[in-house]
Design a protein that fits this description.
About 10% of the residues lie in helices and about 55% in strands. By secondary structure, it is mainly β.
């Protein structure tokens, strides 16, 4: 620490801490340069787990801290956590058992996932960032989750999305493998708005619509998810040995329509029957069905 006559104090600090509790991490937040709403969000979002390591670097004139404007100093706080849940927003599923690297750099924050899960699905990639701590810009979260599609569909049953999509989530029974990619903005102050851009990619998955007595296998295609609509074109699969295509479209009345088009091949259908009838129709048949799931 130095202070020359007529100049601002100059600080050079290098500190490290080992083994602590995430619940006590607020002691190391640069709260003086953070929006109070952001501090409250961090206190609620990161409330349990272990801190394995914390490193702090401060170097520069303190009247310029955190040095993001004049670029005449260094300010960094880097921490690694273990078995930490992240409750990023009420009404959304928490991220569980996170091992992550959290970094404050000047007036921004980044969280990079090392490992973790949502429901029973491993999170393959996750990055969360806040570009400006004061005023607090929205939390920007991007991630990729792979696992059983019932986990990804379960997101639609959470409180934040259930009023809009709960009916359709309850109508579907899914199995197999899928991958969910999310790009999510969560406002932490008056700046910004909620935004969600998600893609649920089915990979040789299975889908049952009990209301139609319809079971589809070998499903491939993408379901697009936003905060106000589900959309899909070109989801393809097989049922009774014949090709079927599924589309999902929002309706003007707020409902979501699931449409299925089936081109039935009589020869393929006969092979699926345990006891083919003595007389069967010849040729192919085409049918289309629609299910409208109400929204609010």
């Amino acid at each position: 620490f130095e202070q020359a006559a007529g100049q601002a104090p100059h600080l050079e600090l290098l500190a490290q801490f080992q083994e602590g509790q995430v619940a006590a991490a607020h002691r190391y937040y640069p709260a003086d340069i953070m929006n109070p709403k952001l501090v409250n969000w961090l206190d609620g979002a990161l409330s349990a787990g272990q801190v394995e390591h914390v490193g702090v670097i401060v170097k520069g004139p303190l009247d310029s801290f955190p040095f993001n404007k004049q670029r005449n100093g260094i300010f960094e706080v880097v921490a690694t956590t273990h078995e930490t849940p992240l409750h990023y927003r009420e009404g959304w599923p928490p991220l569980q058992d996170l091992s992550a690297r959290l970094e404050f750099h000047e007036q921004s924050m980044d969280i990079e996932l090392l490992s973790g899960r949502i429901y029973n699905s491993p999170i393959q990639q996750l990055h969360a960032s806040i570009d400006d701590l004061w005023p607090a810009t929205p939390l920007h979260l991007t991630g990729r989750i792979a696992g059983p599609p019932e986990d990804q569909i379960a997101v639609l049953k959470e409180d934040a999305l259930k009023p809009k999509f709960g009916h359709i989530a309850e109508a579907l029974r899914v199995r197999g493998d899928a991958e969910l990619n999310l790009d999510f903005h969560v406002p932490l102050s008056q700046l910004g708005e909620y935004a969600l851009d998600g893609t649920l990619a089915f990979k040789n998955a299975g889908l049952a619509l009990p209301g139609w007595e319809l079971d589809i296998d070998q499903i491939n295609g993408d379901l697009l998810i936003s905060l106000d609509a589900l959309r899909a074109q070109g989801i393809h699969g097989q049922t009774m040995g014949s090709p079927v295509s599924v589309s999902v479209t929002p309706q003007k009345n707020g409902s979501t329509r699931v449409s299925a088009e089936l081109r039935l091949d009589h020869q393929a259908t006969e092979k699926q029957l345990p006891q083919p009838p003595r007389q069967t129709p010849k040729g192919n048949a085409h049918s289309a069905s629609h299910l409208d799931a109400p929204g609010v």
